[in-house]
Amino acid sequence: MLISQITAQRVLETALETGADFSEIFVEKKRVNGVLMIGGAVETVQSGLDSGLGLRIIFGTQSLYGYTSDLREESLLRLAKTLAAAVNEPGKQVLNPWMIRNGETTPHGIVIPPSSIHMKNRIERMKEAHDYATAYDSIITQVSVRYADAVQDVLIANSQGKWVEDQRTRTRFSISSVAEYQGEMQTGGFSPGAFQGYEFVQNLDVKAVAEESARVAVTMAKADPCPAGTFPVIIDNGFGGVIFHEACGHGLEATSVAKNNSIFSNRLGEKIASEKVTAIDDGTIENAWGSSLYDDEGELQRKRVLIDRGVLKSYMIDHLNGKRMGMEATGSSRRESYKYAPTSRMSNTYIAAGTDSVESIFAATENGLYAKYMGGGSVNPITGEFNFSVMEGYLVKDGKIDRPVRGATLIGKGSDILHNIDFVSNNLAHGQGMCGSSSGSIPANVGQPMIRVSSITVGGRKGEEE
Amino acid sequence: MKQFWEAFLVESRRRGVEEVEMMMQRSKNFSINVYESELEKYLISEDGGYAFRGKSNGKMGSVYTELLDLELIEELVAALIENADAIDSVDPEFLYPGSGQRMESDLRQENDGTEAEKIKFAMALEAAAVQYDSRIHKVSNSFFAEQESEYQLMNSHGLACSEQDRYYMAYSYLTAEEENDRQTAFAFQLSRDFRELNPETIAKEAAAEAISILHPKRIPSGSYEAILENRVVVDFLESFGSIFSADAVQKGLSRMKGKLNEQVASTMITLVDDPTGAVGFLTQPFDSEGVNTQKKNVVDQGILKTYLHNLKTAHKAGVESTGNAHKSSYKGSMGISASNFYLAPGDRSKSAMLAEMKQGVMITEVQGLHSGLNPVSGDFSLAASGFLIKDGVKDHAVHQITIAGNWFQLLQEIHEVGADLWFGLPSSGGHFGAPSIWLKSLSIAGE
């Protein structure tokens, strides 16, 4: 047990003394391991223990948050007192008796806990990856491999009697290859991860991932600069879903919906996307990177249909924003650590499979860009304007892949893109990322089948020549 | 803490660890956000962590904990040894002997305010923004934060350094709306003296900015004369901050490799790294390894004078450390970072440059820096916005364009460096400052 029931009770009660409606603690102990290998040599190895408590007090729709890494009861009570001093409301809530949740069976089983693995085992796998990538082509000049695992034990308890304990084990393996050709340096990289222990790395096809990262770097180093202009863009499956995540997903989080900051505020039931688009956020996918049994308010994670054939069906909602919006929470509350108050966040978000074939998508594209792999990007949540880099791109001519191009950037507005998706294929796949927002950086899956957007502005290094 | 450190020394000696170091970092934060005259966010925190490094069989292991529990010591030392054992990088790492160096620094200023004054400040910040203009449609954030930090570094050679600092930061993030167009803007102030922050100044800057960029238009693709506003130049300097790190150079990840004492930029470019406190907020008498810091011109009139070193890279290069060792927190690993790093200003104001340029664009914002820019090759392709300039003045706001080019080439071809030196927010890579710059040619993709 991370802290005793009696300490938890004292902290929650102290927090309510000045008239708040609700108090909640999030206690965490997280063990992490990380290894960085550059050029086949282990550069750094880090192990650590994070430990602390976050306390939230809510009155009306206002919320106060405090945290400390000092878990001694006197320090926790001091935190509760200081925080409560900022509240001055009539009446006093009393604590409900504990309703301890257990017996819930998790679908996310862990086979090999990270603590049972010696550092050397992890490094052997990393060396393999390095060797495969380096051997792929003589123009590969640098390969870096990263490994990270984390076991996070949490306790969520609140003044309504909630007592939930959960454990989240995640493992991630990243490889990045740099190729240099005639003075042009380009990078290809992948970072697969899962809600799993060391079995994830054991079962990972390290050779395929390493060689693919090298292939992308080599292809892009030899590619011409991408021409700029406005084209139809074919975005391939998997990590391509990052555009939906950034440009639309964030706008469906209650964090921005409740404040009317989102272009999707007050639009439930309206058609916000092309009929081809059904979008889902599912925190229950077995052992997926963005899954967990409970969210960080202690609600069971679930599957949410956000958009059904173009019609907005649901937002992702946490308790506090739900109160502001007059809606129920959807089990979407997440946070990086005890240092962050929780809020509505995505888990595993994807555009569902459609019925178009890959061949028909290319056949319909006379002149365009094919984004095989996407890089990162960002979005302004208020205006919906986004920008994304294309990691591996090709020009499409007369329905066929013509030649690779580097340095392409996609820019536009999320709301326009949703309407302009005119093809959705049937090859759904997922990719893994870290999503940064107001409650910190959290693991999240993005995903989609191959889609086509009828028109996106593409920025590149060359002017409009073609 | 002293008891923990002593116990750690005993256990590491027992296990044959040759030399050890402990870094302690503690911070105390208070931050609030006002939204529609209510305290929407109120955060207090006290946290800290302890990082240990130690040499076992000639290799450096590291481990950290946020929990100071004497029962953890055996586990920590064992993990440190296991981690050291796994290292196979051939470059030796060192702890700074420092001849028992002891340094204490306290940058905290007296002028603190009460909690009530700070809440009042954030309320005033929101009110000033709302009252500025009827087109200010929403003020999402009126934010105030206070951060107090304490840092200690000690090792088994007797090194003992400590540092305390405290600063205040406030920002306004708001939206202007007119005829179905919405634009956002952000402005901030940073100070060690609470009384120096002014809510009206911040609100006015953000509000005026948001209104000025309403009703943007796109412009045709092509090559334009351009002025990159100081904050855009800061974004670039920051994104390319790692190119002067000796670590990046030694790993072949920087184009500055092999260019010492060569012309790497126009003679108008002088880049200064200044930890002494004359400018910027990353002011430190010693770096993360305990080495004394110093002011230096990294690039002097276009000539590359030095890389930024820590003990490891300096040993490899056969030079002295420049005092740029950096560990972003107790969770990080030892790296290299700039301190207060800026492009030295020229003589003329931005408006003088605009007047002489007559026709062109002024870029005031770029986005997607973490993905649209390659720090190794220097290539960039970034979403941007700004203004079309006609007859030396702003004609209309411009949006949804991308600017593209190569940073290294741009540094060679720069036409003029302005006088308006401005610093952004400090980050773990340094605190960067720059004036606006004038370019004769910038490739823009638009309509």
Instruction: Report the order of strands and helices of chain B.
Output: HEEEHEHEEEHEHHEEEHEEEHEEEHEEEE
Taking pLDDT < 50 over at least 5 consecutive residues as the criterion, the unreliable ranges of chain A are: none
Our count of helices of chain A gives 10
Cα distance spanning the termini of chain A:
65 Å
Spatial shape of chain B: globular
- Characterize the biggest β-sheet of chain A: 8 strands, mixed
Low-confidence stretches of chain B: none
3D shape of chain A: globular
Largest interface: A-B, 75 and 68 residues
Kindly provide the radius of gyration of chain A, computed on alpha-carbon positions and rounded to a whole number of angstroms: 24 Å
- Structural class by helix and strand composition of chain B: alpha+beta
Helix content of chain A: 10-25%
Number of E-state strands of chain B: 21
Helix proportion of chain B? 10-25%
In terms of DSSP E residues, the strand content of chain A is: 35-45%
Count of DSSP H/I helices of chain B: 9
Descriptive account of the structure:
- The complex is a heterodimer of chains A (466) and B (447).
- Chain A has a domain of 231 residues.
- Chain A is 20% helix and 41% strand.
- Chain A has 10 helices and 24 strands.
- In chain A, the strands form 4 sheets. In chain A, strands 1, 2, 3, 4, 5, 6, 7 and 8 form an 8-stranded mixed beta sheet that branches. A 6-stranded mixed beta sheet of chain A has the order 13-12-11-16-23-22, with helices on one face. A 5-stranded mixed beta barrel of chain A has the order 10-17-18-20-24.
- In chain A, a hairpin with a 2-residue loop joins strand 18 and strand 19.
- Chain A is globular, with a radius of gyration of 24 Å.
- In chain B, the strands form 4 sheets. In chain B, strands 1, 2, 3, 4, 5, 6 and 7 form a 7-stranded mixed beta sheet that branches. Chain B has a 6-stranded mixed beta sheet with strand order 11-10-9-14-20-19, with helices on one face. Chain B has a 5-stranded mixed barrel with strand order 8-15-16-17-21.
- Chain B is α+β, with helices and mostly antiparallel strands and 447 residues long.
- In chain B, helix 3 runs parallel beside helix 4.
- The mean pLDDT of chain B is 93.
- The chains are: A alpha+beta (466), B alpha+beta (447).
- Strand 2 of chain A pairs parallel with strand 3 of chain B, so a sheet runs across the interface.
